[in-house]
């Protein structure tokens, strides 16, 4: 594929004179003259200048950081351009509709048109699979589930009974949806299980990362809105409700009955307490420990999480603390480290 | 089921005049007149007053917060009442004993009465499965394991060789028990594996959440006591010993050889160092980093974890720090945030 | 096996007079006179003195802490000695080469000599499995993968398409390699998926713990160097590159495009930001939050992570803060805990 053709596909402007033939996409330091690469951040400008890539996607602003000799395609959004051109250079493996002879479909399973059911998958009684959905090898879809059209389940996903999964959703390997939540009452000094009779409702266009777990509602549903993107190894507790377009990075944990708005970002390893509300568009920093409500649009960080500016102010004050103590004690060497770790 | 009949089952007192027919249980904001709901916390009293639920479970104290017109069943423990009535309104799916024809049982497997072995499950040589145990679809039970009576393994659980699982235990999908622990010694500057020859012993009435991992002992067993309740995505290292009735919330990690007492609570994402002891009845807050021993009955929080009152005192002092610095410097604006994040 | 024979095998010096017959290895508090045990840390010296073990592995230094009456084998490295003797006392289960009749091998799969493919495993088109490799029950090996010789995949591992796995690597149950990374661009206010066309390259002699997830590169590979040891429930993002011999403890998360050197140690639950560099031989403490580059050989801890000595100094200052505030305010009781948690 000619670089000029790539430029046309992504509505970009090619500059730099050359028009190489491109066979793939590669990172700056691995690209060869037949590779497309890209510059996403000015911190990599030197690496870009030294790259052997045949052509680079850059924004207008980044283009100015590069020597004129470098062939580039100037675009409005580098990642959108990549998303546009990658399927042309790396055509996805064609779908293979069909029911593998080893798949087990219990009574009352209803299959849409052109579905694929992989080897050794098990679909339990009363479940409906939408048109063109793809249920991977070794998946287990419980009783009375609904799998939306064009949904894609990678191998070894488990949907517990009564799960509803929206159209075009993608579940990676090892995802478990509809798990019994953590609900016990104390009786005789011992925790006793409370039956978990709710379910999970996953919206359309949701992607869920590998080995992520989502609990069913204790009563009523746990709900994940349309266009949510959830990374690997995330935990979502029972009765949680998450609005559309929210993004949850790896290893986040959300305790039960919390409500999270639309367009929220939760960065990696953040923990969110139960029974609280995080407003639309809020941003929670990595490893934050969120114990109370977060207003819409706010950015919170730290433990306990607070507005990020305030957290930075406290952090800056902490950093000055050893010097302050030294000063108050007249530089007496009192800041010898203690050994609490 | 009449509300008055529900009240009888849970030994509660019905008040408010009506006696609706109930077909389900729902959260306050979704309940209809044919639903039972409940009030677990006075913070939801307004929601309860506005709910369309046919009847509410409440405690004596919460009952006083509600308008007299609301039909309620007054009980001693809302969750115990729910646990009592849920199986009546949501009868569990009947058990289906039997060995699926695709299940593979190696030589010397001993099956109790009325067991169920799901499709494509593999039970390796020398393993015993107790009466009425249920081994789900795609489970792998290693060599020489013991699965207790009435144990329930959801799909895709892996028990490594020599695991012992107690009676009535519930393992959710993706649980891995008896994994090789993280044991290496340095040789020639490279980590070399130390064979892990211990095993895992899980007590009776234990529940373990989805995708949780428990390492086998390096030598001797890793032990989880009776009535422990372990949430999703928890990691328990080799040689750990946990006393009866301990509760471990999601994403907690416990490093090797640590001993945890009876009736301990470890909240979400807490991390516990190796080779330490946490006493009976201790409570560890979410995200705490526990580096040393914790005495029985203590509540610890923070990083490094310390007694919770002390942690609160330090936290309060930290919160006053920016103002203190401003004051010491005469309000010179010296608290401009630095940029370390 | 006689204790004197064990001493010979590990090139140790037996002392204490007795020469018991040994049938197993056990921890100090469970060992019987026919067990070998060991002392790894002087904190356990009392337990060692009280142990019923037939013989103990000890170092020269630890030997001096023990009563002369205790039979011991003095070695240079206790763990290396254990690694040497364990396979003799606990012979590993013999390998069982062969292709289980239920395994599915698609077109173009190439198998080396003496491989084992477990029951219900699925190997997709174009994949090569090296000599003596062992692909466990229910494993799914995607298209065009390479599995190195003597690699060992425990049950229910998923390798996505194009994964390359080195020789002698061990993957525990539930490992997912080559998962689509978390790559989206915003379009119309909604996150849109960017195809992830890179792959994963795992070196030789790597061990990866249960339910760990490793993303494929977005473009180009995600790379794990030779002799890396990765624990359970770890997350490694797309395009990450990790040098040889690096050790990653449970529940660590590494965000995309970060480069980690050789011989690095990342302790449990640490989080590492994307697009940064951690130098060779660095050590990152448990639960640390690493937001910026870490120089080679440095030890970092805390949130945000900083040099450990500096973190200890700040921590010590924080610990003195309540008293300082009391002093500044004349002991006015101003340190009443606030209620932010």
Give the overall shape of chain A. flat
Class of secondary structure makeup of chain A: alpha/beta
Q: Which pair of chains has the greatest number of interface residues, and how are they split between the two chains?
A: A-C, 73 and 66 residues
Main β-sheet description of chain A: 12 strands, mixed
State the main characteristics:
5 helices; twelve-stranded mixed sheet; ten-stranded parallel sheet; homotrimer; alpha/beta
Protein architecture, described:
- 3 copies of one chain form a homotrimer.
- Chain A is built from 5 helices and 38 strands.
- By secondary structure, the first copy, chain A, is α/β, with parallel strands linked by helices.
- Residues 331-341 of chain A have low confidence and may be disordered.
- A 12-stranded mixed beta sheet of chain A has the order 6-9-12-15-18-23-26-29-32-35-37-38. A 10-stranded parallel beta sheet of chain A has the order 7-10-13-16-19-24-27-30-33-36, with no helix packed on it. In chain A, strands 8-11-14-17-22-25-28-31-34 form a 9-stranded parallel beta sheet, with no helix packed on it.
- The first copy, chain A, is flat and about 75 Å long.
- Chains in contact: A-B, A-C, B-C.
- Chains A and C meet through β2, α4 and α5 of A and β20, β21 and α5 of C.
A few lines on this structure:
The first copy, chain A, has about 350 residues and is of the alpha/beta class.
Write the layout of secondary structure elements.
The structure is a homotrimer of 341-residue chains.
Chain A: H1 3-9, E1 13-15, E2 24-25, E3 35-38, H2 45-50, E4 55-58, H3 60-63, E5 72-74, H4 78-89, E6 98-99, E7 104-105, E8 110-111, E9 116-117, E10 122-123, E11 128-129, E12 134-135, E13 140-141, E14 146-147, E15 152-153, E16 158-159, E17 164-165, E18 170-171, E19 176-179, E20 184-187, E21 190-193, E22 200-202, E23 207-208, E24 213-215, E25 222-224, E26 229-230, E27 235-236, E28 241-242, E29 247-248, E30 253-254, E31 259-260, E32 265-266, E33 271-272, E34 277-278, E35 283-284, E36 289-290, E37 299-301, E38 306-307, H5 308-328
Parallel strand pairs in A: 2-3, 3-4, 4-5, 6-9, 7-10, 8-11, 9-12, 10-13, 11-14, 12-15, 13-16, 14-17, 15-18, 16-19, 17-22, 18-23, 19-24, 22-25, 23-26, 24-27, 25-28, 26-29, 27-30, 28-31, 29-32, 30-33, 31-34, 32-35, 33-36, 35-37
Antiparallel strand pairs in A: 1-5, 20-21, 37-38
């Amino acid at each position: 594929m000619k670089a000029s053709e790539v430029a046309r596909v992504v509505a970009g402007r090619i500059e730099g004179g050359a028009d190489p033939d491109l066979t793939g996409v590669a990172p700056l330091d691995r690209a060869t003259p037949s590779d497309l690469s890209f510059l996403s951040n000015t911190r990599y400008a030197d690496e870009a200048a030294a790259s052997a890539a045949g052509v680079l996607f850059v924004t207008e602003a980044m283009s100015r950081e590069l020597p004129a000799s470098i062939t580039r395609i100037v675009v409005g959004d580098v990642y959108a351009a990549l998303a546009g051109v990658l399927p042309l250079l790396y055509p996805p493996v064609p779908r293979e509709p069909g029911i593998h002879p080893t798949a087990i479909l219990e009574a009352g399973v209803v299959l849409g048109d052109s579905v694929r059911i992989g080897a050794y998958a098990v679909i339990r009684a009363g479940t409906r699979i939408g048109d063109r959905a793809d249920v991977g090898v070794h998946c287990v879809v419980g009783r009375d589930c609904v799998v939306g059209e064009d949904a894609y389940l990678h191998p070894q996903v488990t949907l517990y009974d009564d799960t509803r999964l929206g159209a075009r959703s993608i579940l990676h390997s090892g995802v478990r949806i509809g798990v019994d939540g953590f609900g016990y009452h104390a009786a005789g000094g011992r925790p006793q299980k409370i039956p978990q009779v709710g379910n999970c409702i996953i919206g359309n266009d949701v992607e869920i990362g590998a080995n992520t777990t989502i609990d069913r509602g204790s009563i009523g549903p746990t709900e994940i809105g349309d266009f949510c993107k959830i990374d690997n190894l995330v935990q979502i507790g029972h009765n949680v409700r998450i609005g559309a377009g929210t993004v949850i990075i790896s290893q986040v944990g959300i305790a039960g009955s919390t409500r999270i708005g639309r367009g929220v970002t939760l960065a990696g390893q953040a923990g969110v307490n139960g029974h609280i509300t995080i407003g639309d568009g809020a941003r929670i920093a990595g490893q934050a420990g969120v114990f109370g409500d977060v207003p819409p649009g706010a950015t919170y960080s730290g433990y306990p999480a607070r507005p990020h500016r305030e957290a930075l102010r406290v952090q800056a004050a902490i950093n000055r603390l050893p010097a302050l103590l030294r000063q108050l004690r007249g530089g007496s060497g009192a800041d010898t480290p203690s050994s609490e770790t």
